[in-house]
Amino acid sequence: MKKLIKVSTLLFFLTLLPLLASCGTSDKTGNTNDMPITLKNQDGQEVQVPIDNKPTVIFFFTTHT
User: Fold this and answer.
1) Which of 5, 7, 32, 37 could form a disulfide with 49 if both were Cys (CB 3.0 to 4.6 A apart)?
2) How far apart (Å, rounded) are the C-alpha atoms in residues 10 and 37?
């Protein structure tokens, strides 16, 4: 029974993680942040992404057998 509770709790948090990751960043007033995002490309150069083209973060869960 305890193992079932641990597994169900783990599954709950694993399903909650992508939901929280998909939420946009906002300041304390609830407005979205207007500053551009700075990312690094494959060459190591910093590239600014405008707020209109904000990338979406998606998590993939994999199992190791």
Assistant:
1) 37
2) 32
